[in-house]
Amino acid sequence: MKAARAALIAASLLGLVAARPPMRYQPDPSSVFAAEIAFNRLARDKGQWTAFRETAADDAVMFVPQRVMAKQWLKGRTDPPKPVSWTPSVIHVSCDGNLAASTGNWRRPDGSVGYFTTIWRREKNGAWKWVLDHGDTLAAPREAPEFLVGKVATCKRREPGLGARPAPGAKTPAPPADDSLIWTADVAADGSRHVRVRAWNGSGYDVVIDDKVAAPGA
To answer: pTM for the full model?
Structure first.
């Protein structure tokens, strides 16, 4: 009788664990800033392309200038003698804390400068991995704020019933996708591209990053 009761309690506990919703992370721009600093430090310590490989999501994309799968393009690529360095100046985070966009300036060892935009996604283990990285050269750095700017998108109202508790023993449904921060990356046949990030403001989307890169040689 005791064994049966123990088994019943154990089964109930397993059911509670199975029904527990996925961990929710705080929409914290400082965690993205920390990921950027660690990324930059890794490039300095281990090499530029090594750092890109180690911090990229499996489905990450780059532009060379056409869109490529980052890990395929980076595989076996030799690190330059000295890496580019960069500093994020503005970071936007989705309401659920699982997607972010950072943008700022970079500088090469030869003194040339430009800007970058990186889209970050939080993995199941809580770590940030980048899913898109792009940028362009500039004659002079973009004007940057004196202090890092971190912004969080307004939460979008979910449809009724999406947050309902599953019945005992039922498979836990996947949480509804958060679309408070969305991005697009369009590449033309000539290699020019347009990367745009939008953040929900409560009644519509604000364009918060709008990068246009000319075709090579244009």
So the answer is: 0.81
